[in-house]
Amino acid sequence: MKFILTAASRSRRTFRAVNSLLLILCVVLVASCSKELKAGDPITLDYDKAYLIGDATTAGWTIANALPMTKGTEANVFTWTGPLTAGEIKFPTALNFSSDTFGAATAAQSISNNKAQLSPGGNPDVKWKLTSAEAGTYKVTLNTKSLTVDFQKQ
């Protein structure tokens, strides 16, 4: 018995071959588009809220009393103006201590150094430290993209 290819069976074989080629192409494209993140790679996350917390603020360390910052028209920029006293300060993104937090780049960092770091889940727990000579009214600007916090005495 001879096997005769009909138009329908040829069409199915062509369809399967085209599908197989498309699948291979998709796998190659996905593999070539992947990027491995390494330590130090910039990751920009968008946050809806940011707060001030610490004994340098009127909120103290009571997270429920954290002071809300105002999100500006420029993406990733938050501001707050008010009194700061001697003590420590950091910037959580939610009203809990396990939220992502923007902290100082080094422990007990001076407010003259604006370099910040993102602490996922609040770790590491690093803060800026204000001295009694630095106490006063400040405009504080947090930029979550450039990882900076500017303290401008008013």
UniProtKB/TrEMBL annotation:
Q: Which GO terms describe its molecular function?
A: starch binding
Domain annotation Outer membrane protein SusF/SusE-like C-terminal: ranges: 50-149
The family database entries (InterPro entries) matched by this protein are listed as: SusF/SusE-like_C
Looking up Pfam families in the UniProt record yields: SusF_SusE
Q: Which PROSITE patterns match?
A: PROKAR_LIPOPROTEIN
Q: Which GO terms describe its cellular component?
A: outer membrane
**What is the name of this protein?**
Outer membrane protein SusF/SusE-like C-terminal domain-containing protein
